[in-house]
């Protein structure tokens, strides 16, 4: 058993408050359940959104672009000089919408895919905690039983103390793992959300740039 290789930190409390430990573990159990449910839902939502961007959004934007080019081709039937600038501007607008469609198709690799990778990683982490919590709960149960057996004269106090010591070690290790998980979780999700939003901003700046370029084509019409 891994817990047998662990020793309690020197200078630490001899015995942890079992009620406090149980409360913290129960709270973490509820947290992991809720986090697991939310990561599954977010992963499904993000995956669907990415799929729409790669296929649906690209197709719709390029459909708009194609329609603008069709209008431009119709206008080109008028060969008068004052029409040329407008024809070219509308054709450029169609090209801009084609380009925006390509931007949408490429964007999930920049922002949504990394989010899904992180969610998958944490779903793997969360899958490990039920076993850890089960061991912790088992240790707490044994301590409660040993105290009752001592009171009933069915167990020597020295043996009960040994059970208490083992539970203490398991509790220290479990609480340390919970603390470490939360610290790493905050670090990872902060970094990922910053990256996601930065990439979203860059993406919409590119879209805005394409639209502004198209808009300027009409200045001299």
Automatic annotation (TrEMBL):
GO terms for cellular component: cytoplasmic vesicle; plasma membrane. This is Sorting nexin protein WASP-binding domain-containing protein. It comes from the Eukaryota. Residues 1-219 form the Sorting nexin protein WASP-binding domain. GO terms for molecular function: phosphatidylinositol binding. PANTHER family: SORTING NEXIN (PTHR45827), SORTING NEXIN-18 (PTHR45827:SF4). InterPro entries: AH/BAR_dom_sf, Sorting_nexin_WASP-bd-dom. It comes from Micrurus paraensis. GO terms for biological process: cleavage furrow formation; endocytosis; endosomal transport; plasma membrane tubulation.
């Amino acid at each position: 058993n891994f817990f047998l290789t662990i020793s309690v930190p020197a200078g630490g409390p001899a015995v942890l408050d079992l009620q406090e430990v149980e409360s913290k573990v129960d709270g973490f159990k509820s947290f992991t359940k809720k986090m697991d449910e939310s990561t599954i839902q977010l992963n499904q939502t993000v995956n669907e959104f990415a799929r729409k961007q790669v296929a649906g959004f690209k197709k719709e934007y390029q459909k708009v672009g194609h329609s603008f080019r069709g209008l431009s081709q119709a206008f080109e039937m008028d060969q008068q000089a004052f029409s040329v600038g407008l024809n070219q501007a509308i054709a450029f607008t169609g090209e801009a919408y084609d380009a925006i469609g390509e931007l949408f198709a490429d964007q999930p690799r920049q922002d949504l895919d990394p989010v899904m990778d992180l969610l998958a990683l944490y779903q793997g982490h969360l899958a490990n905690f039920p076993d850890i919590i089960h061991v912790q709960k088992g240790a707490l149960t044994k301590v409660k039983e040993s105290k009752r057996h001592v009171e009933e004269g069915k167990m020597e106090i020295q043996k009960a103390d040994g059970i208490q010591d083992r539970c203490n070690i398991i509790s220290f290790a479990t609480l340390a793992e919970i603390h470490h998980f939360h610290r790493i979780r905050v670090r990872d999700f902060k970094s990922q959300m910053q990256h996601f939003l930065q990439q979203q901003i860059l993406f919409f700046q590119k879209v805005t740039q394409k639209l502004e370029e198209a808009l300027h084509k009409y200045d001299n019409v």
